[in-house]
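User: Study the fold:
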Amino acid sequence: MKKLFDKFSSKVTNAAGSPSAFLSAFLIIVIWSITGPLFGFSDTWQLVINTGTTIITFLMVFVIQQSQNKDTKALHLKLNELIACNHQASNRLIDIEDLTADEIEALKKYYIKLAKLAATEKNIHSSHSLDEAKANHLAKKNVNK
């Protein structure tokens, strides 16, 4: 059931974000607006669009949330992999999303201090240089051979 809903939500989310979905929704609104005078702008005429949009919005919340949860988990795993494979990165950052707000705030203070220290450097090349970029590229290239 979960796998089926996952596939369904991915397809619906992709379809809902397409230009054709927007055009379809726009055409529905135009048609609804045009039919207003035919129905005398009645309460029933208004109820049709209100009910339709409410139902679609209610269902889309769950579908979009499922897709967003999956994307967020995948992104966290990719970041965890990058942290784990870099010997200079702190493994404390792996699964940081599971820490408490206070623990995250403590780590944030560390990185704020690090950013302030880097900002005091007058020359950006002291922390990022073209030579460093070339050396990093060559090191990765040699590892992959």
Summary: Residues 43-85 form the longest helix (43 residues). The chain has a mean pLDDT of 89. The helical segments are 2-16, 19-35, 43-85, 101-119, 130-143. DSSP finds five helices and no strands in the chain.
